[in-house]
Amino acid sequence: MAASEFQCTVEGFRMLTPTVFELTFKADRPFSFLGGQFASVIIPGAGPGGRNLRRAYSIASPPESDPVELCVKVVEEGPGSGYLAKLRPGDVFKAVSPYGDFVFSPSPERIPVFIGTGTGIAPIRSILLSKQYADNAPTKAYCLFGVRHESELLYVNDLCDLATVEWIPTVSQPGANWTGFRGRVTDYLRTLNDDFPWKTADFYICGNGPMIQETKSILEEKGVEKSAIHQEKYY
Ligand SMILES: Cc1cc2nc3c(=O)[nH]c(=O)nc-3n(C[C@H](O)[C@H](O)[C@H](O)COP(=O)(O)OP(=O)(O)OC[C@H]3O[C@@H](n4cnc5c(N)ncnc54)[C@H](O)[C@@H]3O)c2cc1C
Known about the structure:
Elements: E1 4-17, E2 20-27, E3 38-43, E4 53-58, E5 68-73, H1 79-86, E6 92-99, E7 111-117, H2 122-128, H3 131-135, E8 141-147, H4 156-159, E9 165-171, E10 181-182, H5 185-191, E11 201-207, H6 209-221, E12 229-233
Helix pairs in contact: 5-6
């Protein structure tokens, strides 16, 4: 699918957590993409000399859903997230889409392991809820989702009880009542021993650069082939 420019009309805006909002929109024509791909939003006049800027946002909804959903972290003084945070139903923005190769490659003998931190869960949600995934559902999959505090967990209701997906939220600075794993996704990976199917798994990692780097180092120590690692680096 070649990327092209769309006029997008906002349908909804709501806070999902204290610092992440969901923006839903309808495009001026069919907005085709594969689960896990992203759109490049045009931020009018926010660049040097009043030029437009572009910012990438993973599509959080599956390809079959309408309206389309984005989930965006509020970044202080960020031109991209700040622009989207001010949009309300009826407002129109422009986006060029689809982009990206962080997409699901089904393989009957392989076990997908999805690892996302923060809004990095967005493309993973898109994949896991897609028809393509349902039609090729592996017998087992893992989904690790890392945040600092449990109030930052996104899409829990959508993802926690998907058939055959083991949902593993990890919280690095939890409150006293958190009963799940305490630590980062990388700390969780280090707890797994050789019973884990390292060599037959495909890893899909999305989030910040340092987390991706550290995860890849752990996978390398475990003997995971580079070809089994897919990544989407946000910053
Ligand atoms: C392929 C791709 C997909 C992306 N998808 C999403 C998405 O679905 N949701 C989303 O919120 N962001 C996403 N991003 C990040 C997004 O493109 C912007 O970088 C982000 O919104 C900040 O832009 P800004 O103009 O507001 O602030 P800027 O001034 O450009 O950025 C300021 C700083 O914010 C930090 N930052 C950037 N993104 C995040 C984030 N998500 N969480 C925490 N800190 C961040 C970085 O340290 C960055 O240097 C994606 C990035 C890429 C490359």
